[in-house]
Specification:
Blueprint lengths: L6 E2 L2 H10 L3 E6 L5 E6 L2 E5 L2 E9 L3 H6 L4 E13 L8 E15 L3 H16 L14 E16 L1
Antiparallel strand pairs: 1-8, 2-3, 2-6, 4-5, 5-8, 6-7, 7-8
């Protein structure tokens, strides 16, 4: 990271930034060799040195086609956006908190693991883990798990 003065390395602080975000951009390698980036709702579960992201949606489409050919992905999240105005044009700045990283990614097929992930997603967006996930919905839902293997966090406040 070029601006070491803005780097955050404390795991709990990085997880706090992740918890403040409401969208995670997943980066895959597209058919043309370029990045395919898709914004997704997510749940994050702290595990080990990093954590695990869960994503859900339809069990088909371009991201699923790409996931059949790759088992690694990049991600990015950002929050707390604010323009800092100045008297001179090039003196303006922008405040933010962001996390970028990489991880091992897999489409979940195990019914119990999918239910666990869906429960985490419901907890993330409603604050409650007491939801009954309909058994009939589990096989039709696409659920993706990204186990983080590295990340960086930048805070400009």
């Amino acid at each position: 990271m070029r601006r070491k003065d803005r780097e955050e390395t404390r795991v709990e602080e990085i997880r706090k930034v992740v918890g403040e975000c409401d969208c995670c951009r997943l980066g895959l390698i597209g058919d043309d060799g370029l990045a395919y980036i898709v914004p997704l709702n997510f749940a994050f579960v702290a595990e080990g040195d990093f954590g695990v992201f869960y994503f859900h949606g339809a069990a088909q489409g371009k991201k699923y086609d790409l996931l059949k050919r790759q088992n690694r992905a990049s991600f990015e999240l950002d929050t707390a956006h604010e323009t800092v105005y100045a008297e001179k044009a090039c003196a303006h700045s922008f405040r933010f908190r962001s996390v970028m990283g990489k991880g091992d990614i897999v489409v979940l097929t195990d019914r119990d693991e999918k239910k666990k992930a869906l429960t985490e997603l419901m907890r993330t967006y409603t604050g409650s883990s007491e939801w009954e996930i309909p058994a009939a919905a589990v096989p039709t839902m696409g659920v993706i798990k990204l186990a983080v293997t590295e990340w960086t966090c930048k805070i400009h406040i």
